[in-house]
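seq as requested:
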Amino acid sequence: MKLNPKVSVVIPTFNRREYVAQAVESVLQQSLEDIEVIVVDDGSTDDTPERLQEFGRRIHYVRTRNQGAARARNVGMQISRGRYIAYLDSDDVYLRFKSELQATLLDHCPEIGLVYSEASAFDDSGYYEEWHLKAFHSSAYQRGITYENLFSRQISLEETSFAFKVPEDSPREWMTRSVYFGRIFDAYLINTVVFTPTIMFRRDMLSRIGYQDARFGLFHDLEFVLRICKQHPVAFIDIPTYKIRYHPGQISTTKGSRGARNAIQKQRDLLHVLRVHGLRNLEYYRQNRQVVDRQLAVLHRAVAIPLLSFSGGSSHQDKYYPKRARKYLHRCATLGKPQWFLWLLSFCPHFWRRLGFVTIRMRQQLTKALKRRLSHRDYR
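struct tokens:
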């Protein structure tokens, strides 16, 4: 273990014994040697501790009782000693040059508080997507967000002073991509555009920013990064440095009843972030009321939809979830965005609600097809 490493990588893990060793190896094999690896075991009940014994003193292993990823990352950050801090989910892996490239950018750009990057995606069955960020955050980029309008400045990667950190055997296309700089708080509050596991930030900011807040649930990491973006400009490197692994056991799964509950919880947590940073910050709200109110309506609707879609399998639940949904739909109406069709659906049995959502999807598909046809006609 290094006494004063340049970078500390915090890896929270819970019952990921089949993947965590690969995650750790991807950090230990980084081209940057001046690095410490902190694995925070959030009370795993499998043989994760035994699996990690092979790394010995090459990693700092800490075991805590199960309290969630936010508190696990906080434990890691509190004991970290690096100038910069980065995260890695224990089922994902780094590309070999990630730490060195991002740390060098932070060295060369002292005004930047945080850097993040593009990411690739894969699974163990052979699926691979090299450029995955826009697909992962598709809702933001479908609304017209581009890197050019998100950031205020861009530089071709090959023209930067740190391009030499990208391996020579990388695809030539990578060097034609750009590095972007700017303040993105306003855009990030409304659109999820940062893939937070790819970030690296300055450790000395923690005294001002604070640590991650578990009260924001599945979006505790987004809220933490949002605080950084509020105070500092950030940089984005438009090449992959991180690989997301897709597998059935992911926390963020959207399949089955667990997936339905996740969808409800995710939208509630995202709404909580907006309430705190957009609504309860009175000065910000006065200056941006129209934008914030519009997004509040969008997110209230987004909570109502999975509530209406969920079938708990009992008559009590079939009444409870629509009733909860109506509270969110009522808020849409008070914000000037009434959702009459969804309101009527909330009084229907589950079968008819499902049929109603099929109708909504068909209408959306027809609208998209019509827009594409009109766009094609205008182009000709």
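The chain has two domains: 7-246, 256-379.
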